[in-house]
């Protein structure tokens, strides 16, 4: 049994199934750009960023409220307090909001604010979290684990899909290789492979993929 049969995906020959987030359709129509800060340092800064990325042509706003850090002493995000402030200013943002969920206990509060839930690279193998995210019915941006094979990435998506949620967008964000010139190595071959075979829209994160902002011009 091959990977395609394991996942039991209903895809006719690589036809992309668009995912709607607010007024934006990912996988159909115009090129989709998601932009914004990795970590929201203040709600005011996010509002300023929202205006800038909207004027630059972005489709969705990304802003990290809860952050998973390798170093526990690093900034972990604004947390619930930041979420409450975002809720108060949601109408002013002007773009659908994407943010990362790191803990299923945060989901109820996040669903009041967030238009699309992101599962980050470190949580791609967190199967209980994937299942809980799937149960919400909210569109999901599933980032590839930095050590994950394509098969593992697709089967992670299946945890979400088995809960009845097919609104899944995959995001290639680079994988760990022996190359040291960039932070990670963007596996663009996997993007082409998935787009030819699977129904999921696929986005690419050049920021985490390279780790060098000069390689990601505005």
The CATH class is: Alpha Beta
| CATH superfamily annotation | Aldolase class I
Main sheet specs: 7 strands, parallel
The number of domains = 1
Describe this structure in words.
With 218 residues, the protein is of the alpha/beta class. The protein has one domain (3-215): TIM Barrel, CATH 3.20.20. The chain has helices at 3-7, 43-55, 79-93, 107-110, 127-136, 150-161, 188-197, 206-210, and strands at 19-21, 24-26, 34-35, 60-62, 97-100, 116-119, 140-143, 168-172, 202-204. The protein has a 7-stranded parallel sheet with strand order 3-4-5-6-7-8-9. Helix 2 links the parallel strand 3 and strand 4. The relative contact order is 0.14. The mean pLDDT is 86.
Write the layout of secondary structure elements.
Blueprint: H1 3-7, E1 19-21, E2 24-26, E3 34-35, H2 43-55, E4 60-62, H3 79-93, E5 97-100, H4 107-110, E6 116-119, H5 127-136, E7 140-143, H6 150-161, E8 168-172, H7 188-197, E9 202-204, H8 206-210
Parallel strand pairs: 3-4, 4-5, 5-6, 6-7, 7-8, 8-9
Antiparallel strand pairs: 1-2
Helix pairs in contact: 2-3, 5-6
